[in-house]
Amino acid sequence: MQLIEVSVTGVRSAVITLRRESTPMAFELFSMVHLGTLAYYQAVTERLRDCQLIVAEGVSGWSPTTRALTLAYRLPGRSRRLGLTVQSIDYAALGIPVIRPDLTARQLARRWRAVPLLQRLAVWCLLPPVALAVRIFGTRRFMARHLSRDDLPTPEDHMARSVAGEIMEVIVDHRDELLLEALASVHEAHCGEPVTVAVVYGAEHVPAVARTLLARYGYRPRAAEWLTVFDF
């Protein structure tokens, strides 16, 4: 199942609707890219208006750790030449209930301190200059090189796990666990209702959601729509 498509014309993200035969509730999985055009985030917002509940990603609070780890897209997002913006969705304006099962900034910082020192130093040494270089010299095509994503692990995923497994546990695995616990509660509470639940999370988190909803509850992909993140 393809989540993020990179083609000769640009980058598209999938909105995948999951349903099961025995109950009326549906999940809509939004495979988010955190840096895109304003039109992309407006299109996501319009789709969310048709949902009755939103489960959204977002580390709450502020800490130097969260600011540093988001440099990869915050710095390029300031480039007028690229014409892109950091993900911004005004959930409050939608008037739809929102659940945020993510970490707090303090929790993330505490878990980050448990990552081996060499891995943390590598991030601090490499991430700022790379993000700055992308802002100054990068192109949309360059940024899209590693955005392609489907629901199966790639060789690059296995390599990342082998060299920085502890980092992946902090920024992906533990947050997946919190998300899946929240979705289990949502299913138990609302599966008998004709509602659509939007899951608005980075594409890195969507495979775990899709696999768990299928294996545990029998939700299967029934429809999909592509939204353009940015073109070239």
**What oligomeric state do these chains adopt?**
single chain
The number of domains is: 1
Count of helical regions: 9
Which range best describes the helical content: under 10%, 10-25%, 25-40%, 40-55%, 55-70% or over 70%?
A: 40-55%
Extended strand count: 10
**Strand fraction band?**
15-25%
The largest pleated sheet is described as: 8 strands, mixed
The whole-number mean of residue pLDDT values reads 95
Helix and strand succession? EEEEHEHHEHEHHHEHEHE
How far apart are the first and last residues' alpha carbons, in Å?
Answer: 24 Å
Low-confidence stretches: none
The assigned structural class equals alpha/beta
Radius of gyration over all CA atoms, rounded: 18 Å
List the topology elements.
Layout: E1 2-6, E2 10-20, E3 23-32, E4 35-36, H1 38-48, E5 53-56, H2 64-69, H3 71-74, E6 85-86, H4 91-94, E7 98-99, H5 105-113, H6 117-137, H7 140-144, E8 149-150, H8 155-190, E9 196-202, H9 206-217, E10 220-231
Parallel strand pairs: 3-9, 5-7, 5-9
Antiparallel strand pairs: 1-2, 1-8, 2-3, 2-10, 4-6
